[in-house]
Amino acid sequence: RRRTTGVAAAVVALGIGGAAVHLLTSPDADESTPSTAAAPAAPVTPSAAKSAAPSASPKRSASPSAKPKPSKTKKEKKKAKPSPDRTSAAPKPKPKPEAPDPKPAPQQPSGTAEQVVALVNTERAKAGCGPVRSNGKLATAAAKHSADMAARDYFDHTSPDGTDPGDRITAAGYRWSTYGENIARGQQSPAAVMDSWMKSPGHKANILNCDFKELGVGIHNGSGGPWWTQAFGTAL
């Protein structure tokens, strides 16, 4: 496939405790990404109220008979059994609505990766670019690269065995027409890593590339880290 090499960069932030973060630009900052290529064949992976009828009062005869005998007229009438009347039951009064609570502030993304995506879209909006959508396949490729850099102790867009960003996102099943990658190490929060990337021209160019439509973010925590990877892409 044909690729045109564009912008990619790597930033390392090293600091102890409250010390200021020191940024280093990778010597390979302008290698690898973003790239464009022809489409490769990608592996896929209310209850009713009861109304009671009043009971009839027992009737008394005007004068008792000499020999009192039971009289049908003297017997108490049986109380009528109440039956539910759905049509005539008065509805229970509704409680008065309480004063509405103050409108809550917009909910912030909970996950670390989601926070990075939100910060990316904030910067893109300032530049007039549309937002990128989170993509699971790109996130898989990014997470694997962050973990691999930690496991094999390297910091680069190309792995020791020669695997590059395009290879990684293709292996994750993403059919791309263009892609880009940012990496960073040592920043302790989404805000910190975004600040580092936005201060680096190569990273900033990827973040503000309006051609990218999707993004996956991978973070690996560990001694010497965290390791951060952003995998940008536009699907075929």
Task: List the SSEs and their pairings.
Layout lengths: L3 E2 L3 E6 L7 E4 L9 E2 L13 E2 L31 E2 L27 H15 L6 E2 L1 H16 L13 H7 L4 E10 L4 H9 L2 H7 L6 E7 L6 E9 L1
Parallel strand pairs: 2-8, 7-9
Antiparallel strand pairs: 1-4, 2-3, 4-8, 5-6, 8-10, 9-10
Helix pairs in contact: 1-4, 2-3
> What's the pLDDT, averaged over the residues?
72
User: Nearest-angstrom radius of gyration?
Assistant: 37 Å
Structural class: alpha+beta
Question: What characteristic shape results from the CA principal axes?
Answer: globular
The number of helical runs is 5
Q: How far from one another are the termini?
A: 14 Å
So, CATH architecture of the domain at 4-33 and 111-235?
3-Layer(aba) Sandwich
What is the highest CATH level, the class of the domain at 4-33 and 111-235?
Answer: Alpha Beta
Strand content: 15-25%
CATH superfamily of the domain at 4-33 and 111-235: CAP
Share in helix: 10-25%
N-to-C order of helices and strands: EEEEEEHEHHEHHEE
In the predicted model, the low-confidence regions spanning at least 5 consecutive residues are: 1-7, 11-80, 82-88
Instruction: Find the CATH topology of the domain at 4-33 and 111-235.
Output: Pathogenesis-related Protein p14a
Main sheet makeup? 8 strands, mixed
By DSSP, the count of extended strands is: 10
